[in-house]
């Protein structure tokens, strides 16, 4: 039986990946950090929290000794490092914490593997945020990096350390450069889920208006459940490498807003520009969206669009779910959760 260790198992990707590997008969160790209130709602949502093949184990990414003990105890064949301070906006306010968790944290795991067992396969959750300021469109594994946030910089360090441990010590260390991927399990602070959750609340009469930041930025959004399968395939490949996972389609935040309101039966129209822009209901003129400058970032990543052809040819991986389908999936889930009064 294969043994996998997933850090960040309480997050969106960690929960989907645990589900994927359990379905394939893996023994899964899910590492989570200690918090004053347990945070297993995603595992419960997927119905895997009580699966006897899933063992939840406390671990903090910032602690080297803890990394060594974790690897020693679990004896995994595969380690998926998904834990991170993953919110770009917060990284501007907490750059040092972000560097420690998101940048140095993965090196603790790489060191533990180097010390204990170099046959362990390692996956690092790298990101399209490393491309940052646009150097080329679409972005692929050879596009130069130019991160635009403390989060992007921290991830770039971890990415290069992954490459370095691969080249220096022969460790099967792979870096997945994933573009934005969303789902009903997305945290509510990220823009797609913030939008579908707010539109659901507006539809149910629980909210009047949504507040957002920059509507002009473009993102390549895919479905998280499909992206975790790409991670799994990367660790089954014959050689460690770096791979982009993306849809190769890009849309603005405004497009996603229109899509979500449309799926809920609203016809949202826009007037004004930048901080004065509003979105209003075309049928009755009611304001449905306002811009709040507090959601703008000090430096922005304007345009992401990934070229996943390498993953297509080497891993036979392809994003299947369209953005319209994804938006509807998330909206339906938020309508259901909000009508039941759920708190997540
Ligand atoms: P989430 O924010 O949903 O999950 C992050 C996880 O990391 C949570 O389980 C969190 O725990 C855990 N964590 C945070 N700090 C620590 C710490 N100090 N020690 C141990 N665990 C910690 O992220 P996603 O699931 O969306 O993303 C997974 C990974 O992929 C992240 O590394 C992210 O940066 C990266 N990524 C994500 C993309 C996306 O579009 N989703 C795209 C590209 C990369 P807790 O629940 O306690 O907060
Ligand atoms: P991102 O995702 O920064 O791409 O990082 P997020 O959903 O936070 O932002 C996407 C874009 O939307 C703009 N935006 C807003 N964002 C948020 N969160 N809230 C708002 O109100 C708002 N208004 C406009 C942002 O400025 C941004 O341009 C995500 C994370 O999952 C990272 O961990 C991951 O590495 C990258 O995706 C790929």
UniProtKB/TrEMBL annotation:
Its cofactor is NADP(+). Pfam families: GDP_Man_Dehyd. It catalyses: GDP-alpha-D-mannose = GDP-4-dehydro-alpha-D-rhamnose + H2O. InterPro entries: GDP_Man_deHydtase, NAD(P)-bd_dom, NAD(P)-bd_dom_sf. One of its GO terms (biological process) is 'de novo' GDP-L-fucose biosynthetic process. The keyword Kinase does not apply. This is GDP-mannose 4,6-dehydratase. It comes from Chitinibacter bivalviorum.
């Amino acid at each position: 039986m294969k043994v996998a260790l997933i850090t960040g198992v309480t997050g969106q990707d960690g929960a989907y990946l645990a589900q994927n590997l359990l379905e394939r008969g893996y023994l899964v160790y899910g590492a989570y950090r200690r918090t004053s209130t347990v945070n297993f709602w995603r595992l419960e949502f997927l119905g895997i929290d009580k699966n006897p093949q899933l063992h939840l184990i406390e671990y903090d990414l910032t602690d080297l000794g803890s990394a060594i003990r974790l690897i020693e105890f679990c004896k995994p064949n595969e380690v998926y490092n998904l834990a991170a301070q993953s919110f770009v906006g917060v990284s501007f306010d907490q750059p040092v914490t972000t560097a420690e968790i998101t940048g140095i944290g993965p090196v603790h795991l790489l060191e533990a593997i180097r010390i204990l067992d170099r046959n362990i396969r390692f996956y690092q959750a790298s990101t399209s945020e490393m491309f940052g300021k646009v150097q080329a469109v679409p972005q692929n594994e050879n596009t130069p990096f130019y991160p635009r946030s403390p989060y992007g910089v921290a991830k770039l360090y971890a990415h290069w350390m992954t490459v370095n441990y691969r080249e220096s010590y022969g460790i099967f260390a792979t870096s997945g450069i994933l573009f934005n991927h969303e789902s009903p399990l997305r945290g509510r602070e990220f823009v797609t889920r913030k939008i579908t959750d707010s539109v659901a609340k507006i539809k149910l009469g629980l909210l009047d208006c949504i507040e957002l930041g920059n509507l002009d930025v473009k993102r390549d959004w895919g479905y998280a459940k499909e992206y975790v399968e790409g991670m799994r395939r990367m660790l089954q490949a014959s050689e460690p490498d770096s791979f982009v996972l993306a849809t190769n389609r890009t849309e603005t935040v405004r497009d996603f807003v229109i899509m979500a309101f449309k799926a809920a039966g609203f016809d949202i129209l826009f007037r004004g520009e930048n901080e004065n822009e509003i979105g209003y209901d075309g049928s009755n003129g009611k304001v449905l969206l306002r811009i709040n400058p507090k959601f703008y970032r000090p430096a922005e990543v304007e345009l992401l669009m990934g070229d996943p052809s390498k993953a297509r040819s080497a891993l036979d991986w392809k994003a299947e779910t369209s953005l319209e389908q994804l938006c509807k999936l998330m909206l339906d889930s938020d309508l259901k959760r909000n009508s039941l009064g759920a708190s997540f």
